[in-house]
């Protein structure tokens, strides 16, 4: 089955206090939007649409020819944003992932898991969810006999819903045609005069279509980055994840807390990385290589067994 993806990346990100659109800001030396798009490439998405808006040209400049950018002139809600992709995807058979451009820690393995669950359970809609503390201000999942009947925003929770701990992460998988048919019925008759993607869940229920959840263990994968504090937190989380994975793979990182390795770097077994190094881009570090302390390497190739002096910059 064909897999399409729509990445929502039109927002300004006011809390960033920046002239740049939010998704252009970097997490571990890579723009947020590229983190998301590259994970979609890993799962082999057949077509990826990025919805751009604020300072659109800055976002488009980061996308290659495999990605289609569509413009949302006015930000009228998440449902309206997804509708911007109708011309490109509306009549196609398959499933469509909807992802947030400001959630850069998502993994390809998580997306693949949601796709497989969506297919296996014959869903028309699948909502990615995670468990949370009851005080967390995220929308909650309302179910009846295993069917997702609605998503209730935290401020709208009724007394008998306050103990629900399964929350909406804002990432979804839908049957493509069913999605766009439901979006045509979404109204903006609400306090914000916006078109909410979450209203699709109720519309699908009214049509008797199956909507289920795919629960993940690590909410940090999908937590949105809305300000500079969250940006730094995301960088630290990704740094720790990547360094842990390389340690498990047989790479010696002398001080993981001061070593920054980009997501697209490849390192051979028995390589040694001294403290304070920053290795980014599509760098390739050979097996048994030794990277001296406080080296900064970007898009370099270090051969097997090669020694890099401390404080090298290239």
Question: Please, could you describe this protein's structure?
Answer:
- The protein has 314 residues and is an alpha/beta fold.
- It folds into two domains: 3-221, Alpha-Beta Complex (Spore Coat Polysaccharide Biosynthesis Protein SpsA, Chain A), CATH 3.90.550; 249-308, 3 Solenoid (UDP N-Acetylglucosamine Acyltransferase, domain 1), CATH 2.160.10.
- 24% of the residues lie in helices and 25% in strands.
- The chain has eight helices and 19 strands.
- The strands form five sheets. A seven-stranded mixed sheet has the order 3-2-1-4-8-5-9.
- Helix 6 (176-183) crosses helix 7 (199-206).
- The longest helix has 21 residues, at 228-248.
- It is elongated, with a radius of gyration of 21 Å.
- Residues 5-225 form the Nucleotidyl transferase domain.
- This is GlmU protein.
- Pfam families: Hexapep (PF00132), NTP_transferase (PF00483).
- Its cofactor is Mg(2+).
- It catalyses: N-acetyl-alpha-D-glucosamine 1-phosphate + UTP + H(+) = UDP-N-acetyl-alpha-D-glucosamine + diphosphate; alpha-D-glucosamine 1-phosphate + acetyl-CoA = N-acetyl-alpha-D-glucosamine 1-phosphate + CoA + H(+).
């Amino acid at each position: 089955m064909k897999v399409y993806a729509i990445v929502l990346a039109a927002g300004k990100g006011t809390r960033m206090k920046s002239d740049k659109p939010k998704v252009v800001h970097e997490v571990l030396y890579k723009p947020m939007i590229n983190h998301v798009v590259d994970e979609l490439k890993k799962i082999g998405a057949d077509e990826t649409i990025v919805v751009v808006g604020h300072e659109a040209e800055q976002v488009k400049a980061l996308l290659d020819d495999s990605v289609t950018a569509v413009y949302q002139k006015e930000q009228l809600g998440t449902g309206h944003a997804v509708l911007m992709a109708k011309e490109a995807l509306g009549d196609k058979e398959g499933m469509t992932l909807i992802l947030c451009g400001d959630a850069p820690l998502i993994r390809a393995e998580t997306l693949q898991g949601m796709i497989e669950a969506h297919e296996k359970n014959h869903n028309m809609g699948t909502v990615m969810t995670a468990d949370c503390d009851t005080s967390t201000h995220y929308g909650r999942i309302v179910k009846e006999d295993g069917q997702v009947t609605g998503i209730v925003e935290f401020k709208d929770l009724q007394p008998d819903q306050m103990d629900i701990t399964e929350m909406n992460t804002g990432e979804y998988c839908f049957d493509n045609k069913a999605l766009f048919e439901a979006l045509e019925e979404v109204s903006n008759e609400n306090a914000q005069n916006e078109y909410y993607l979450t209203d699709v869940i109720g519309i699908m229920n009214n049509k008797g279509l199956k909507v289920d959840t795919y629960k993940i263990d690590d909410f940090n994968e999908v937590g949105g980055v809305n300000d500079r504090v969250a940006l730094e937190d995301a960088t630290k989380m990704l740094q720790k994840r990547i360094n842990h994975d390389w340690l498990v793979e047989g790479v010696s990182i002398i001080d993981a807390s001061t070593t920054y390795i980009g997501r697209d770097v490849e390192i051979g077994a028995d390589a040694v990385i001294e403290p304070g190094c920053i290795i980014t881009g599509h760098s390739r570090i050979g097996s048994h290589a030794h990277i001296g302390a406080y080296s900064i390497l970007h898009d370099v190739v270090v051969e097997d067994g090669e020694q890099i002096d401390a404080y090298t910059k290239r």
